[in-house]
Amino acid sequence: ISLEEVLQWSQSFEKLITSTYGPMIYKTYLKTEDSDENIEFWLACEAYKKITSQRKRNSVARKLFTSYIQPQAPNEININSPARKAIISNIQEPTQSCFDEAQRIIYMHMERDSYPRFLESKFYQKLKHSLQTNGN
């Protein structure tokens, strides 16, 4: 992990979440806030969109639904009722985009809420500091 990459994370949430180590580091931070289900869901949706086999898509869609979407799911994410209802009605024949709205909502939650706290956190500051003083 390079200092350059870590410094870029403070430029935008997009840079953090699309970098090589950003999602993993951010997830570690979110665990301290008990909200790592957000990044897990977001990353799972990114992987889901790449699935080409309908059979595999059906299987993964059900896993996403039971893990993150259904009420009282073990890693239930905070999305609005219309988004949840849309997924519930589409889960029998899941499309490549059936989780897009939920993923967008979760992205906004992370960008607005936990990302600013991440940048201010001792966790991020220590990482930055250790790379600045020790090189890589």
Automatic annotation (TrEMBL):
Pfam families, per database record: RGS (PF00615)
Q: What Gene3D superfamilies does the annotation carry?
A: 1.10.196.10, Regulator of G-protein Signalling 4, domain 2
Range of residues in the leader sequence? none
Show the InterPro entries listed in the entry.
RGS, RGS_sf, RGS_subdom1/3, RGS_subdomain_2
Q: Which SMART domains match?
A: RGS
Corresponding gene? Rgs13
Domain annotation RGS: ranges: 12-128
State the protein's name.
Answer: RGS13 protein
Q: What superkingdom does the record give?
A: Eukaryota
According to its UniProt entry, this protein's organism is: Alca torda
SUPFAM superfamilies linked: Regulator of G-protein signaling, RGS
